[in-house]
Design brief:
Blueprint: E1 5-8, H1 14-31, H2 37-53, E2 56-61, E3 67-74, E4 77-83, H3 92-104, E5 108-112, H4 116-124, E6 127-133, E7 144-149
Parallel strand pairs: 4-5
Antiparallel strand pairs: 1-2, 2-3, 3-4, 5-7, 6-7
């Protein structure tokens, strides 16, 4: 597994935001199978704001300088982590999360219960569920698992 260029981005111009939105949508369509196309379209409206406003935005770019993965961190909480579908399974998730743990002391996150692969990945990385809600942050009927890193 080759080491990719992981770095925090301060300048969040509209071009970058649009590229990250494409990564987000590609990732969500592949991993959040419980969401309809209409729901994804509705959620996408919040994502621009979330990417623009998160304290720490960390991305991985490919050889062509295109973003292929990103995460957002607020305080010590992982707010988002998305990998372009064609890049999944190459260890990018692990590289990003380890970077967040090491550089930003990430120790908490929330994950959709209906995304068993994501839940399994976070458990593999040492996170344990401490709380469950029936609804997501927008009040939709998608159970959320809140997880903490167990040292």
């Amino acid at each position: 597994m080759k080491k990719l260029n992981i770095k925090e981005i301060k300048d969040r111009n509209s071009s970058l935001i649009n590229q990250l939105l494409e990564v987000w949508e590609d990732s969500v369509k592949a991993t959040h199978l419980f969401l309809s196309s209409e729901e994804i379209k509705n959620i996408k409206e919040y994502v621009t704001q979330a990417i623009s406003g998160v304290s720490h935005l960390v991305i991985i770019k490919n050889e062509s300088n295109q973003p292929i993965a990103f995460m957002g961190i607020e305080d010590r909480k992982l707010e988002m982590l998305f990998i372009k579908n064609s890049e999944r399974g190459k260890g990018l998730e692990k590289q990003l999360l380890n970077y967040g743990i090491k550089n930003y002391n990430v120790n908490e996150l929330a994950v959709n219960e209906q995304s068993p692969n994501a839940k399994g990945f976070y458990e593999y990385m040492g996170f344990k569920t401490y709380k469950r809600t029936e609804l997501d942050e927008q009040g939709n009927p998608y159970p959320i698992l809140y997880m903490r890193l167990e040292k």
